[in-house]
Write a structure and sequence with these properties.
It is a single chain. The protein has a domain of 309 residues: Rossmann fold (3-Layer(aba) Sandwich). By secondary structure, it is α/β, with parallel strands linked by helices. Helices cover 17% and strands 25% of the residues. A hairpin with a 5-residue loop joins strand 7 and strand 8. The strands form five sheets. A seven-stranded mixed sheet has the order 11-9-12-14-21-20-19. It starts with a helix and ends in a 5-residue tail after the last helix.
């Protein structure tokens, strides 16, 4: 990257004042390219009444650890799938009274059982059993052909249909599949959403889960048939297929069938529900398709690895912030790739997508690292105007999360001093180059590195906060691993690449509590 040299020097001087001077591309506070204001969405529908104690009361119910998979495996020829038993759902998210279809294949054919659990705190067990079904006869369902743009779209027959009961609260639900033959297990995953007012909307990053899903073998959004880390056009993925085991960073058997839920997001949900916060859950696709639904909350949370956004998602969030919604991006690599949604072969909306562009102006440093990104026009809105900072090269790396504004209300009660670090909390992707937004403040920053002996791969992250027009705010934590500092639920596997986060930390918990409690004091939109 050849621009913004003066402002980067200013950023380095700040780091030097903390004893952190280094080569730090991507740390500058830059004025983004002009971007159109989002189109005004329709007026919101009136939500149903708030139930502020719903989640607290739900977590008083008895839980169980039997939700965890006990016998998992993947076919070594495919590297990711569990052909002995695997499945997917007809909906990414669904409301009470609607019908969910669950599609299951067993190879070899085997009877199987299905247990459905709502994940949460539940006294530290992590889930409550909601329903047991089966046995079902089970059969081997056909692998889908390779379609245009390497699309793998299953057309399986449903194993069962479930009408979501009115008493099931919003949450992330997993269906534990167990084959009678051999005892092999995997998951299906879906979100139950509601209409009610709630303090917080927890957005699951499931467009990113699907982007990295290589089921049945090397068919992620990143595979163009030649390169397994392709970042360009010409590849589509479908939600009509199982989730294979997660493909990078760590070996996590609980990810078989559950996307990235248990990797980066569940620790936040587990902690929030343990604290009794009033939270409701949605999919990325609900942010895409249901703007009015965003306005029933005081705060919106993006968690973990939240990379892929549609233009509608971007515009809906910016419009909601303009109306007074608080937002916390407790995530990294957020709103980087722009995708476009398409219907399935059966005509179901929003089941297929491919890349359409990248958010923000063209960045030669990023294209140098990922050449296939150069095929796009890079004409989409600037993600920094939403997040407060943007995705910058080298984009991957690790770092300590270093306080630079100890007097800020974000740090109240933490006792943190200027230059004090929370070890390893930044990773494996981050945001830098704070946007030129009036009132924006950098609250934490520092250098990142992919390897201490490779200075050419050094970058810089910036955690930011900027004010909205109605006393609301937008916080950017600048890390995929923020939730690691909150809790370690049953089955959780700590990531370790570039750096290793240290797990639950009182300071991370207090910062998050400060953010959520400030949101709770906001008026309803």
């Amino acid at each position: 990257m050849k621009t913004n040299l003066v402002s980067r020097r200013e950023c380095l001087q700040t780091l030097a004042g903390l004893g952190l001077a280094t080569v730090a591309p991507g740390c500058a506070k830059t004025r983004p390219a002009a971007a159109a204001h989002p189109a005004a969405p329709p007026a919101p529908a009136h939500p149903s009444a708030a139930q502020p104690d719903l989640i607290r009361r739900e977590n008083e119910r008895p839980g169980t650890r039997e939700w965890m998979l006990a016998k998992t495996a993947v076919d070594p020829q495919t590297r990711y799938r569990c052909p002995w038993i695997e499945g997917y759902c007809s909906h990414t998210s669904i409301r009470a009274g609607e019908t969910l279809e669950i599609f299951v294949s067993t190879n070899p054919a085997s009877p199987f059982h299905l247990e459905i659990f709502r994940t949460g705190y539940y006294g530290g067990t992590g889930a409550r059993r909601m329903m047991e079904l089966g046995p079902f006869p089970g059969r081997t369902q056909p692998d889908p052909p390779v379609g245009p743009n390497r699309l793998r779209e299953c057309a399986w027959e449903p194993a069962t249909r479930i009408t979501i009961p009115a008493g099931w609260p919003s949450g992330v639900y997993v269906g534990k599949l167990t084959a009678d033959r051999g005892g092999w297990q995997s998951y299906v995953v879906f979100i139950v959403r509601d209409h009610r007012r709630a303090d917080f909307i927890f957005q699951c990053s499931d467009t990113t889960w699907q982007a990295y899903n290589r089921w049945p073998s090397q068919y992620a959004l990143y595979d163009d048939g030649r390169n397994e880390w392709h970042c360009g056009p010409g590849v589509d993925v479908s939600f009509d297929r199982p989730y294979g085991k997660y493909c990078q960073i760590l070996d996590a058997p609980l990810s078989t069938g559950s996307g990235e839920w248990f990797l980066w997001e569940f620790p936040l949900a587990y902690w929030m529900e343990a604290q009794g916060f009033d939270v409701t859950y949605i999919s990325n696709l609900d942010t895409h398709a249901d703007y009015p639904g965003l306005l029933r909350a005081r705060g919106f949370l993006s968690i973990g690895h939240d990379e892929y956004y549609t233009l509608e998602m971007y515009n809906h969030l910016r419009a909601a912030i303009a109306r007074g919604l608080n937002v916390a991006f407790l995530s990294g690599n957020t709103c980087c790739g722009r995708i476009e949604m398409h219907p399935s072969a059966r005509g179901t909306p929003n089941r297929i997508y491919g890349r359409a562009d990248y958010f923000g102006p063209r960045d030669e440093g990023m294209i140098q690292r990922f050449p296939s990104m150069g095929a796009f026009p890079h004409a989409s809105p600037h993600e920094g105007l939403l997040l407060g900072a943007r995705n910058v090269p080298p984009c991957t790396g690790g770092a300590d999360w270093i306080c630079v504004r100890p007097d800020h209300w974000v740090f109240a009660g933490t006792g943190m001093r200027r230059g004090e670090a929370i070890p390893g909390l930044v990773g494996w992707e981050f945001h830098g180059e704070p946007a030129d937004i009036p009132g924006l403040e950098v609250v934490a920053s520092g250098p990142t590195s992919t390897h201490p002996q490779r200075p050419e791969n050094v970058g810089a992250y910036a955690a930011t906060l900027y004010p909205g027009p109605h006393g609301n705010f937008v916080f950017n934590a600048s890390s995929c691993w923020w939730a690691d500092g909150l809790s370690a639920p049953p089955g959780y596997v700590r990531p370790s690449v570039y750096t290793t986060p240290r797990g639950p930390d009182r300071r991370v918990q207090q910062i998050t509590r400060n953010l959520l409690e400030r949101m709770q004091k906001s008026p309803w939109i």
